[in-house]
Every structure is written in structure tokens, then in C-alpha cells.
Amino acid sequence: MKKLMLLVNPVAGKGSAKSVLMSIVSCFNDAGYETTVYVSSPERSIQYLADEFGWHYDMVVCIGGDGTLSETVNGLLKDGNPPPVLGYIPAGSTNDFASTLGLPKNLLETAALIAKNEPVPVDLGYYNGNYFTYVAAFGAFANVSYATPQKTKNTFGHLAYIFEGLANLPSIKPVHITIEYDGSTLSGDFIFGCVANSTSVGGFVKIDPNLVLLNDGLFEVILVRNPMNIIDFTNVISSIISQSYDNGNVVLLHAKKIKFTFDTAVDWSRDGEYGGTYSTITIENKHEAIQIVR
Question: Of 122, 148, 216, 294, whose CB count within 10 A is highest?
């Protein structure tokens, strides 16, 4: 009998996993897995549990938001050994990467899908000793997901991010950047940038699914230039809504490896969590680094 590790973040989203946890366990047991449940706590994080015990199992399934998935991945890959197959049951507030994977919003439906479907290889991002599953970002709104209190997320869901983002608008300032990627160079003043392997970032930046292949060895990089007037600002919003990113206000790049050099250190978010403060950062695509059910 195959062994399955079920990692649960009890505070993700509105705690919806608690009410169906036993049904999820039964679903995996019925599919022939011997299932062991681990619940994270302040003393035993998701990353710690994945790193400490994940290697015992044929499959590791995590229940939580995109941050939970990111912690699980970093735990499984910490020692550099081939990780077990990964499953993701989205129970967070936005679940960007779940949308990219095409996972149902119903937790039991997702568990059933994971139990019967085959995994596929997926690229991961990597910088400064950490992996990310779908995005690293800086600038306007990049800190919204980790700056928003968990209680507010649980109460308002995705609206919480919008409220927090609007509150941050007055503090948005451009930063001058030199960007080196796959033999090319670009520089300018930008208010936002993200390095993504996803069709959705923050629930509001959408990328055409036809442009995103999860295992092509390339990132999709979106950079928003500093709007000089209200017309520029309107065009930026229009580009985001229409997903037409390669124009004078918004730049879309595809890159395997990319280096950012800032005039001043900036904060980054990694899969919706705080990802460090850097004046120089190099991000690499780790091709087909993990197997995940989609």
C-alpha cells in the first residue's frame, strides 16, 4: 500500500479544511493510500513537517493557500533529494496557482482528482536558497498578500487584498532598475514587476494561458513602467484587464534566468509571502523540479 502524507494548514482561508478533513482522508484511503495527517502549528511549520517527514511517503498532499504549497515545496526540496509526488488542495483566500493547475474549488473534488490522476513535471523558481512555485514580485501591491492580517483574509477573502492594495496606493513609488535576462538588457523606472510561472498573480494580474507552459523552462516576466500622467495610468489598468502586456506601459518578457539591479533595496514577495529585501537579485528557472497533480 502506498503511503500518503496529508499536510494541513488549519488557519488558511476560512479554515474550511477542518469540516471535510475526515472525508478527504477517506477519499485517499479508498484509493489505496495509507494516509497520515500532519497539522501545522507555530512550533511545527509546514516547511518543517515536509522536510522532516516527507521523505517517508510516496505522495505529499498539502491543504492550504499558495503560501502553504510554497512551504511544502521548500521543505521537500531542502536536502536536494528527489521529492515525492506532490498534491495541492487549495483552501486559501486567492489560490492563484490552483487556478493555473485547473483544480476545482471544492476540496473533496480536488482530493478525488489527486487520488486518481497522474502527476506532471512543473518548473520552479529559485533565488537566495529558496524556491517559489508560481511568482516572485516587487513594487505596487506585491506586499499585499503578506501584509494583510490573516483574520482580515478569513473574513473578507479575496476582497481583503483589494482593500489592502487600495490603502497602499499613496505610497507607490517608482524604482530604477537594470534587468539582465538571457543575453539581453533592459533598464527604466518601474512601479511593479513579477517573475511568474502562472496564469494568475494576486488574483488581479492575469496572463493569457496560451503563453504559460508550466514546464517549458521559461518564466513570464511582467514589468509596469512608472505612469507619467493619468493617460499612462489608464493604459496600465487597461493592459492588465485586457491581458495585453507588451506595449509602451507594460513589458512582457520570457526568460530562463533574470537578474535585477536596483538603485535602492526593495522588498520582494515570494508566493504571496515576504521574500526578502534586495538591491541585486538573480532568479533562475529550475526546469521540471517537481511532479505535481493537476
Answer: 122
